[in-house]
Design a protein that fits this description.
about 290 residues; alpha/beta; Rossmann fold; 2 domains; 11 strands; four-stranded parallel sheet; five-stranded mixed sheet
Length: about 290
Amino acid sequence: MKRLLLALLLAWGLQAQAVQVTDDRGVAVELPGSPQRIVSLLPSLTEVVCELGACERLVGVDNYSNWPAAVRQLPRAGGLEDANIEIIVSLRPDVVLLSVSSRALARLEGLGLKVVALEPKTLADVQRVIGKVGQVLGVPGALALWQRIDGGVQRVARELPAGLRGTEVYFEVNSGPYAASESSFIGEMLARIGAANVVSGKLGPFPKLNPEFVVRADPQVIMISDRNALALKDRPGWSRIRAIRDGRVCMFTPAQGDVLVRPGPRMAEAAQLMSQCLQGRYQGRAP
């Protein structure tokens, strides 16, 4: 009985210990204790919380958080542009995790909610954000999680045949077209596994391109969502692009797209999808 009481007291003490974290705005956010009620408004942050073993603390998520399966039953609180303030407040969160660019940020703070804004844009950012989330949660394992992700990407890189290194790739994140450049975490992943990105990092992480730019770049491989891939040949001049001419267009399903564009725990899986595409072993590859 004494041991049980001691364990409960220790657990209470850990929970009551104040937590202070500086978010990606440079704002020092102080929490009275380890948060037990968390709302996450960014899918990658949702995934990090769960991978650090705190999925049960989530009481609400954004409209797009869908992994792991446990979060699909949670209340939905909108997205980056349309967060539902009333729902978030009704969930009585100890802290709200969201993007620096979220429109809801100032409003939530104005209502007195604790807000931690994090923005993973590069691989270094992902490592830092995982550490910050671990700090907020008051749990160990952030470094081990990053090492597991990084090690997985390294293994994929070692497995890519030497003859495929330097393959020129165009990665489209959305119609527009918006691309992942060398300076984005997607571009860094492509570089890590040995591919060459045709979109310079000088244009920003996810620039909107003139379609003629891609025609001139003439990539050997195109990576794109299956929803946008069907109309590629109809874009002026795109039928001349090597990737389309040679049938080297990898069309990813929505679920695979989630893996590829979320800077979080599943990045080694994303690297594997990229590698399979380069090797022509990807099931969604265009004929």
